[in-house]
Amino acid sequence: MTREPQDxxxxxxxxxxxxxxxxxxxxxxxxxxxxxxxxxxxxxxxxRVTFPLLTADEIYAPLLDEEFWHTVNxxxxxxxxxxxLMQDGYNIYLCTTTNYKNVKIKFEFIQRYFPYITWNxxxxxxxxxxxxxxxxIDDAPHNLIGGKYQKILMSQPHNESFDNKAYGxxxxxxxxxxxxxxxxxxxxx
Length: 189
Ligand SMILES: [Mg+2]
Known about the structure:
The chain is α/β, with parallel strands linked by helices. The protein has 8 helices and 6 strands, in the order βαααααβαββαββα. β2 (91-96), α6 (103-113) and β3 (122-124) form a beta-alpha-beta unit. The longest helix has 14 residues, at 175-188. Magnesium ion is lined by residues 13, 15-17, 138-140.
């Protein structure tokens, strides 16, 4: 029996899936500390590996800074395709691991660029595997390993070396590819 879109729940990560957090973050740290590091230099999830000369507080401070979040840009294709998925009738939830101190700032970012997503479609969760959903789109391998959902990895420099196929995880390089992959997953189920 074919499942209808309203029976299918899709979780979408926020940072580096619908925005350019890492790029903005590197630019911010470069401006402040002259690090010379570009986001394409990030090869590890843990930012402390990329910035060994900065303290953890110096590295993570921008994430709690409202001014910083005004330098983060949306992925323009995400604006279009997330809207399209909602129009298609799927249950769409943004799912973000966010410090509780930063929830308001993060939600304001979402509202600026994705005004069609209301607060009750935003889930803050540090262990996404506990959520009962059909598909998760994320750039962090640790959110995709395990979990009963189908998995789509959004390619980013930090996950380039991750062997997604070993874990049955689809890899996509763009939102257009992501949209097609969602449908190939649903129609092959
Ligand atoms: Mg992310």
